[in-house]
Amino acid sequence: MATRVEKYLAHPGHEGHDVINIQGMYPIHEVERQFISEHWFEAFWKSDWEPTDVLRRPAI
Description:
Layout: H1 4-9, H2 30-45
């Protein structure tokens, strides 16, 4: 019997190489999102911020 994942992957366009794996998600402020859009994520990542602190002030 096929698993749910196998059934999902059986649909055209969803072969194994099309599956993504999310490695991390970080809460960001709107001003940070705008900065990332303009300067790319690497510039933001190198700034002084704590990615796991959901109560932090904007780093930008």
